[in-house]
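All the exercises in this workshop are built on plain-text protein records. A record pairs a protein's sequence with a compact description of its fold. Backbone structure tokens are a discrete shorthand for how the chain folds in space. Once this layout is familiar, the rest of the handout is easier to follow. As an example, a complete record with its sequence and its structure tokens follows.
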Amino acid sequence: MSHDDLGDNKWTDIWAKIAECTSSAYAGECVEGGAKGSWNASCAAALSATVVNTIGEATNEVSEAAREDLTSTVAAYPWSVDQTARTDGSSNEPVIMPASVDGNGDATWSYGMSYQPQFTSKGLSGVMQAISRDADDFQTVVDSVATLEQRRMTFEAGVISAATDGQGLSTDATMPTGLNNAIEANSATAAFFQGASRAVVEDDAEEVDNRNKTIVDTLFGLSSFIPGPGGEVSRIWKDTWSFGKDTTKRIAQNAATQDFTEHLTNAIDESKIAKNDASRATTLTTITQMIGLGIISAGQANAAVPGLVGGDGILDSSKLDGTALDTLYDRFVTNGDDTVNPDLHDQLTDAGDAYKTGYDRGHGE
């Protein structure tokens, strides 16, 4: 593939179609018990990396057919999008095999995943900019990554619930590394999408707002509220266990989920500190996500916003308004006190740095 030949033409269309065909055939391969993925899955990931990186580094303008095929390819590898939003590849190889089990043989949040492509920041940025020209294609990729981030945070909630008998992260507990990574990933992936989408619609305020709404509603709003901590978390984690077999599977949304999304979106619009600050809005959605999952205990949540979590452990989304979000941000980020886990406070404070990194990478800087 030559950079000089790429753009809105048949040559680019052909390569995009090849990547779509191979990724659709092998990206969803499920690998059990720490085994290696197949040669076909490795080849498909390598080809997808080459196509996305080469096209994206050359242009963000492709045909409708190429854009749709690139959308399918990128959406098939949400783990790779997550990684690229935060850092360059961990090696110079075009593919990487996520760890399915840890050193103790226990399953990790990426259990079941086969080989994944290692996208370059510039390559994925260019392709995502092209994808974001169409709202439906943009939504497709955001949906895919939303499922991945939901899986990761739900897994961490299950680990914490099991370790604390459903009581959540205490003020003196050591922050699990996985939870640190999940918080960072929430900020970086949202920012990457915002940076990529704004790069091609920055002169259109309405389109900028539409893309932001897609990210808030989908990446965090629709996938953040999960009724009930404790045992419910473990059940939901099992519901997403087939991720490697079906990368399009999402946890079913219900009236409570939609109600939460509406309240969260309206609250952000009313918030003094988040309405015009996408980074803070992203951090707040992560805080409400962790409250809904029981990672942040009901006691800590209710100390900030009385009645936010009921006696049944379920977050009451009707309590979310602009004042409530401003209070949560002050309590958990700006002025953390002895009612908040200090490591959690530090990680949420640093989420702004992860946001900036993700935004710059998505914007192509």
Summary: The chain has a mean pLDDT of 83. The beta strands are 95-96, 116-117. The longest helix spans residues 135-164. The chain is about 60% helix and 0% strand.
